[in-house]
Amino acid sequence: MDRPNYITPAGYAALRSEYDQLFARERPALVDTIAWAAGNGDRSENGDYIYGRKRLREIDRRLGWLSKRMKAAKVVDPAQAPDRARVFFGATVTIADEDDNHRTLTLVGDDEADAGKGLIGWNAPLARALRGAAIGDLRRVSLPAGEREYEVMAIAYPAG
């Protein structure tokens, strides 16, 4: 990876929790099922065996991905932000577009982004455009729907 994988403490805990769930619970149970199914004879027509091996590959692939993401993670606590007057990682920002439509977004790590909840990834085009902005700043961003201009209306950080 050429850039750090910034992530909030809560986001890192979610990655860790998923890793632990897969590694300590789901994978061992699946290995037991595969061993039981393998002992039943013909493996070529054994659904438990075939599905189990496929699911085991999926889990191992996900565990590898989670492991890489956690190793590359740089945990940043937004509550410790030194400059709360500008938009940086972890900021909750209220923006207004040209039509005076307001949106509230929180800039989080790419692994914890969820647009439906207002969480946008640190490397998303809108987040990149907002970086370093202060209240009242205008920022232009190219989105799939075309170029838009946003004004920063409010900036907040979690209490720390």
From TrEMBL:
Belongs to the GreA/GreB family. GreB subfamily. Keywords: DNA-binding, Elongation factor, Protein biosynthesis, Transcription, Transcription regulation. One of its GO terms (biological process) is regulation of DNA-templated transcription elongation. The gene is greB. Residues 5-75 form the Transcription elongation factor GreA/GreB N-terminal domain. GO terms for molecular function: DNA binding; RNA polymerase binding; translation elongation factor activity. This is Transcription elongation factor GreB. It comes from Sphingomonas lycopersici. It comes from the Bacteria. Pfam families: GreA_GreB, GreA_GreB_N. Residues 85-157 form the Transcription elongation factor GreA/GreB C-terminal domain. InterPro entries: GreA/GreB_C_sf (IPR036953), Tscrpt_elong_fac_GreA/B (IPR028624), Tscrpt_elong_fac_GreA/B_C (IPR001437), Tscrpt_elong_fac_GreA/B_fam (IPR023459), Tscrpt_elong_fac_GreA/B_N (IPR022691), Tscrpt_elong_fac_GreA/B_N_sf (IPR036805), Tscrpt_elong_fac_GreB (IPR006358). Necessary for efficient RNA polymerase transcription elongation past template-encoded arresting sites. The arresting sites in DNA have the property of trapping a certain fraction of elongating RNA polymerases that pass through, resulting in locked ternary complexes. Cleavage of the nascent transcript by cleavage factors such as GreA or GreB allows the resumption of elongation from the new 3'terminus. GreB releases sequences of up to 9 nucleotides in length. The keyword Protein biosynthesis applies.
